[in-house]
Design brief:
- Chain B: GO terms for molecular function: rRNA binding; structural constituent of ribosome.
- The structure holds two protein chains of two kinds.
- Chain A is of the alpha+beta class.
- Chain A has a domain of 97 residues: Ribosomal protein S10 (Alpha-Beta Plaits).
- Helix content of chain A is 42%, strand content 28%.
- Chain A starts with a helix and ends with a strand.
- By secondary structure, chain B is of the alpha/beta class.
- Chain B folds into two domains: 102 residues, K homology (KH) domain (GMP Synthetase, Chain A, domain 3, 2-Layer Sandwich), CATH 3.30.300; 95 residues, Ribosomal protein S3 C-terminal domain.
- Chain B is built from six helices and eight strands.
- In chain B, helix 5 runs antiparallel to helix 6.
- Classes of the chains: A alpha+beta, B alpha/beta.
């Protein structure tokens, strides 16, 4: 519970930093939707940690014992970002084209492997199909229709023990257009 | 009449690539799609307005739009790039400004490139525009079709079919006429067939022009 309090304190500071990446950071689990210069969330994370170390003591003013626990958790989280430990990056890729998403996966795995982070994946999640059934004719003939579908292919990549190099490499990556990336830090 | 499926849609995924590459979640999909349409319309409008002086047709084969999260890449495939680069040294700055005004949030960068196509008359869009131009200047349609086929044969194509429908030569009763050269296997999915529909506005009404070009197999 102490750690969850720590992350909820970190998020507002990070949101202020990331005002430019429009899709805002939600409070649940620090999920940030990605934009092309990927992983600006990491910038926010690094900057947020030292500034938030002061705020727990402000918000838990009268309760000395609780503030100590929270500041400890924040320090642990800070240590977690800079030093390799329990930090984990979860990257979720979505696209309508299989070759593009495969290429994106390869690029991310390469960047991660070159900088010595443990990689898990790419795990192919089930493809989502949105099916639209429309009438073929412009006027009558209700019985004759045609089906169209949009297939969304999904992949999941986990990176354990990311270090600053990994984050840099990932930020400089230029993924093909048509692939949507979502990064989650935990 | 309604029995033939659009050969472009039929081959999407195999031998036919999409013209827009982006991903959008279901909520934003319609907005992004609308924006795409606006970009294409804007380019078309610009070409029609500015190329009125010269040979009167713009020669744009297709517009490809690729979206990354903060970059929009618009690639205009044209057979006559000189027509679009109007004033000296300015390039397509004016067009780029127009398109940027249309895009809703100025948060994203826009990159526009002109790509030249070798053998422009091998593209059905450019050919159809040429035919429309001739028909609007009241040239006999049969001569137009033959000339268009000749122009297209200069490129390496294996087959071409042109269909013109409407009040041909201003006749009171509309009819459909078509001319074919080589083979155009519409049922073969592995055949690379490019298709375009274009409407020519004449004083007698609208003439629908359909052009199929069979490039190669696989």
């Amino acid at each position: 519970m102490a750690t969850s309090m720590a992350t909820s304190v970190v998020v507002p500071a990070a949101a202020a930093v990331n005002a430019r990446s429009a899709n805002g950071a939600e409070c649940s689990g620090f999920k940030v939707s990605m934009a092309a210069p990927l992983l600006s969330s990491f910038v926010g994370c690094k900057l947020a940690v030292p500034s938030s170390s002061s705020s727990p003591s402000c918000s838990f003013d009268g309760v000395q014992r609780r503030s100590a626990i929270v500041s400890q958790a924040v320090v642990a989280a800070a240590a977690g970002v800079t030093a390799p430990s329990k930090q984990k990056i979860r990257i979720k890729l979505r696209s309508y084209w299989v070759p593009l998403i495969e290429q994106a996966c390869q690029q991310i795995l390469e960047a991660a492997k070159n900088t010595n982070a443990l990689t898990m994946g790419p795990v192919p999640l089930p493809t989502k199909k949105r099916v639209y059934c429309v009438l073929r004719a412009p006027h009558v003939n209700k019985d004759s229709r045609e089906h169209f579908e949009i297939r969304t292919h999904r992949r999941l990549i986990d990176l354990a023990n990311p270090n600053a190099q990994t984050i840099d490499a990932l930020m400089q990556l230029d993924l093909p257009a048509g692939v949507d990336v979502e990064v989650k830090l935990s | 009449m309604g029995q033939k499926i659009n050969p472009l849609g039929f081959r999407l995924g195999i031998t036919q690539n999409h013209r827009s590459y982006w991903f959008a979640k279901p909520k934003k999909y319609s907005k992004v799609f609308e924006e795409d349409k606006k970009i294409r319309d804007c380019i078309e409008l610009y070409v029609q307005k500015h190329i009125k002086n010269s040979s009167n047709y713009g020669g744009i084969a297709r517009v490809e739009i690729k979206r990354k999260t903060d970059l929009i890449q618009v690639e205009i495939y044209t057979g006559f790039p000189a027509l679009l680069v109007e004033s000296r040294g300015q390039g397509i700055e004016q067009l780029k400004l127009n398109v940027q005004n249309i895009l809703s949030s100025g948060d994203r960068r826009l990159r526009m490139t002109l790509i030249e196509i070798a053998k422009p008359y091998g593209e059905p869009n450019i050919l159809a525009e040429y035919i429309a131009l001739q028909l609007e200047s009241r040239v006999a349609f049969r001569r137009t079709m033959k000339k268009a086929i000749e122009l297209a044969k200069k490129g390496n194509i294996k087959g071409i079919k042109i269909q013109i429908a409407g009040r041909l030569n201003g006749a009171e009763i509309a009819r459909v006429e078509w001319a074919r050269e080589g083979r155009v296997p519409l049922q073969t999915i592995r055949a690379r067939i490019n298709y375009c529909y274009y409407a020519a506005q004449t004083i007698y009404g609208v003439l629908g022009i359909k052009v199929w070009i069979f490039q190669d197999e696989e």
